[in-house]
Structures are given as structure tokens and as C-alpha cells.
């Protein structure tokens, strides 16, 4: 979809020979490759385009115990949260869609969503827990709850804006909060949200929120600096 709510294309989630699957999360690489996590089948699929399949066909590029959140970091690595294992897996894909340089960060409790973090790192939300920050070398930097003195209800989607501030959707708190580097947290949206899950900062300066409460994608004009 575009930011006006118009559908650009529809991608049926159907694996050759095995049938339909239910996508949990979706990410798009810089090269335009669409990748989805499949919690039910315990897999990550990528949409491969070929002469025999001009509309694309889904190819499984990884299997995990419970893949949920999915993102692409600043280095182009795919990031996958594994809810049961308590981990974030990272890897790149070859032109033939073979996984390369796999790595894992362990020790999380119920990781659900993941997104790029400040300075090439990543941010991971734990179900009914906290949001953890990791550096570009995957080193732990601490949690937003401790660093900013903020209590989450159930942190869900996470992203980072162009200023390096982390944005978090709180499903239970029904709000979206900005966590600037050197200032106190700022509530960006607190009205009209039912179950905010996904969140993203669009290049045009909008804040995009996926609200499962009313099955809507909501777009807000966004400024990283408070008025």
C-alpha cells in the first residue's frame, strides 16, 4: 500500500506443494526482496522472482522454533526474533537466497518485535517486558525501561527515526512513544488507538502505525523534535 491507503499489489501467501501460510511479520530489503516470518510453520520465506515464476514464488530461507518479528538492519542483515528460544537471529542472503553469516543473540525473554536501532544497532521488544538496545556489533546497550525510567505495558513494534530516536508502540498502553537520545520520552500518539502493534517512520516524515484494534493502518504527520 501507499501512504494514501491505495493497494499497490497483492502477494498471495502460498508455498508450492504445501499450501497457504499465515504471515506474522514482513520486511523488505534495500534490493526490494520481500521476506515474511511464518510462526505456524516455524519458517522465514522470501519471494523469489524467476523466468518460470514472473509473479514470484515463496522460498523458505530459514527455520526457527517460533519466528515472530522481522526486520532489516543498517548493514542489510535480516533480523528474526525467536519467541521460544529467547533469541534474535541475523543472517544475510546470497543472490540464490542461501542464508549466509548466521549469528544469534540469546538471553531475551519472549522477544516479539525487532527493528533497526540507533547507530546501526537494533532494538528488540519483549512481551510484557522491556525494549532492549544492541549496538552494531550486537553488544547489549541496556533497556529503555532502565535507561529512560519508563514503564511499558506490552511493548510491540519498534523503529528508529532519522535522528536516532527509538519509537515504540505499546499495545497494552495504547500509545506510541518517542525515546530521544538525550531527552525524556515523548508520547507521540495516545488517542484513537486500540491495539497498536507495528510502527514505522516513513521517509516522507510520517509515522505509520498498524492498529490491530480496528484493523487499520494509521498515518500521522511526524516531527522528531517536539513543538
From TrEMBL:
InterPro entries: 6-blade_b-propeller_TolB-like, NHL_repeat. NHL repeats lie at residues 195-223. Keywords: Repeat. One of its GO terms (cellular component) is cytoplasm. This is NHL-repeat-containing protein 4. It comes from Panthera pardus.
Amino acid at each position: 500500500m501507499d501512504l494514501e491507503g491505495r493497494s499497490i499489489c497483492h502477494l498471495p501467501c502460498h508455498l508450492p506443494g504445501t499450501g497457504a501460510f499465515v504471515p506474522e511479520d514482513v520486511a523488505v530489503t534495500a534490493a526490494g526482496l520481500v521476506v515474511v516470518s511464518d510462526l505456524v510453520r516455524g519458517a522465514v520465506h522470501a519471494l523469489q522472482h524467476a523466468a518460470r515464476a514472473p509473479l514470484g514464488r515463496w522460498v523458505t530461507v530459514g527455520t526457527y522454533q517460533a519466528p515472530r518479528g522481522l526486520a532489516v538492519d543498517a548493514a542489510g542483515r535480516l533480523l528474526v526474533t525467536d519467541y521460544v528460544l529467547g533469541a534474535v537471529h541475523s543472517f544475510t542472503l546470497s543472490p540464490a537466497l542461501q542464508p549466509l553469516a548466521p549469528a544469534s543473540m540469546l538471553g531475551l525473554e519472549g522477544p516479539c518485535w525487532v527493528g533497526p536501532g540507533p547507530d546501526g544497532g537494533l532494538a528488540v521488544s519483549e512481551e510484557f517486558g522491556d525494549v532492549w538496545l544492541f549496538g552494531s556489533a550486537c553488544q547489549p546497550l541496556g533497556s529503555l525501561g532502565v535507561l529512560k525510567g519508563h514503564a511499558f505495558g506490552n511493548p510491540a513494534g519498534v523503529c528508529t527515526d532519522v535522528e536516532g530516536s527509538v519509537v515504540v508502540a505499546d499495545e497494552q498502553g495504547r500509545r506510541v512513544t518517542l525515546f530521544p537520545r538525550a531527552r525524556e520520552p515523548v508520547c507521540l500518539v495516545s488517542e484513537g488507538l486500540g491495539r497498536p502493534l507495528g510502527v514505522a517512520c516513513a521517509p516522507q516524515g510520517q509515522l505509520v502505525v498498524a492498529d490491530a484494534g480496528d484493523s487499520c493502518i494509521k498515518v500521522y504527520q511526524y516531527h522528531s523534535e517536539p513543538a
